[in-house]
């Protein structure tokens, strides 16, 4: 049986979102401001991963990298501060699985990482231009970044 590339990507994305929401829910149930903020962060990442907006989809590799950093920081914070009880170990196991899922997704979509950075850079330049109320020309943004803005990915 042959699984299409798109189906594999959707399964990986679904598993990543499920692990992210699991971690968010567990942190939400623990109570306290720090756990609530951590849960909201994970929820925000889950929403960003499934948002159908084209510019968010084009930035998905960067969202995955940010989620990996957030997850690693959560694990590091737990290692330093605790608390060390059975649910915490389960949550850390889910977060390690989440990191592995992100690594697989990034490995499979490594060709999309550089264009995502270019697109983000172009968006940044446009935001600066809007903030300064000056028009952005192709010469000021660069040929590749302008092409990234004008050419949507399939």
Description:
By secondary structure, the protein is mostly helical. The protein has two domains: 5-108, no CATH class; 112-154. 81% of the residues lie in helices and 0% in strands. The protein contains eight helices and no strands. Helix 2 (33-50) packs antiparallel against helix 4 (60-81) and helix 4 runs antiparallel to helix 5. The mean pLDDT is 86.
Provide a compact summary of the structure.
By secondary structure, the protein is an all-alpha fold. The protein has helices at residues 5-29, 33-50, 54-58, 60-81, 86-108, 113-132, 138-141, 143-150. 81% of the residues lie in helices and 0% in strands.
Mean pLDDT level? 86
End-to-end distance, in Å? 25 Å
> How many individual domains?
2
Summarize the main sheet.
none
The SSE order reads: HHHHHHHH
Structural class of the secondary structure composition? mainly alpha
Radius of gyration: 18 Å
* Unreliable runs: none
| Oligomeric form | single chain
Residue share in β-strands = under 5%
Number of beta-strand segments: 0
What general outline do the C-alpha atoms trace? globular
Task: Enumerate how many helices there are, as a single number.
Answer: 8
